[in-house]
Amino acid sequence: MSRDPARLALGATGGDLMKSWLIFVMAWFAWGVLPAGAAPLDQTLAQVMERFHFPGAVLLVSGPQGTEIATAGTANLAAPRPVTEATRFHIASVGKILTAIATLQLVEEGRLSLDAPVRPFLDPPEATRLTHIDSADVAGLLSHTSGLPDCLRNGPFSLPEHPSLTWTASEALRLGRCRAATEPGRFAYSNSNYILLGHILEKLDGGDLAEILGRRILAPLGMGDSAVRVATSDPLLAHGHRRNPDQPGHRPAGPVAWSSRLGDAPLTTTARDLERLMVSLFRPGKTRVLPTRMVAAMAIERGRADGEGYGLGLQVTETDLGFRYGHSGRFGGFAAEAWYYPDRDRIVILLANGDEFSETDPMDLIEEQLFPPADLVQAAEIGSP
């Protein structure tokens, strides 16, 4: 079974693409939405919630035969109401995928290049404080190899000089608390890269990021339940929670996630809408947000640290199931996972209203439950070169 990211099912060559489609056609007849022997989806979600202490969550699995979805728990502990398929979650850094797509659309249109320097897009107050800004280019921002310090997200969101929780990109770059810069050319995850990309999109495309993502991605894909910034009174909104550090239970995380309009974590959405985005990238039909070759470029690893690789807006993770492509996110009381497994042609999405950090990855448990050993043997035979 190939483990070369460049030979993702998106296909680096025509031969690879044809082979991938033949594999997928064979897989359609071998599997339903869930492989034979997989645990029921609601049972898997119950185990995830128990282990990771999520108040509420949605788990979705999408395959060529259709989609299964499970929901559990409450959307708001303070005013309990059940999580449903219509519940909207902030997806934290999974939203970086949309910022990357919009940026690469500009590249495809010839209005921006991957090697374009970033410095000309910034005004002096923003640029002078960012170490390595003079050497940073668009590809470095997309792949987290710019060396720029991580600003705002790892410090207080309300400052004496900026008491509001809502930040513009310019304010975040100028005032946000920053960590130390890293070495350019090496992968080091920094939210500043995507805050900057959102800033560049607004400069080049006009309007604010919400309008740009809506016009370029949400509307074409029919993602009608998705938005950048939402009203906290929305009855379908999940509320973020954090575990109390010194006693049992959770506390509200507040509106910081919903308030975000920056390119590093812009979106509130549903599992079904997020599935539409993932399908448009990895199993595209009539509606594409990017051409296949550009999606393949997103998935090629350009840097790696702590076992995690990164392309142009996509995380690249090697698992027992082969490579997976997508993104994870933790922010403001929310946790999100959105992944594509090309060797299984499966999309797996987890949205939860708790951002509990753990030494274990919820996807490890989900993969163990949904893709049992018997399925691995079958998939290896189908996917072998």
UniProtKB/TrEMBL annotation:
Membrane recorded as keyword: yes
Origin superkingdom: Bacteria
Protein keywords: Membrane, Transmembrane, Transmembrane helix
Region named Disordered: 240-262
TM segment ranges: 21-41
InterPro entries to which the protein is assigned, alphabetical: AmpC-like, Beta-lactam-related, Beta-lactam/transpept-like
Domain Beta-lactamase-related: 41-362
PANTHER family xrefs: D-ALANYL-D-ALANINE CARBOXYPEPTIDASE, D-ALANYL-D-ALANINE-CARBOXYPEPTIDASE/ENDOPEPTIDASE AMPH
Name of the protein this chain belongs to: Beta-lactamase class C and other penicillin binding protein
Annotated source species: Paramagnetospirillum magneticum (strain ATCC 700264 / AMB-1) (Magnetospirillum magneticum)
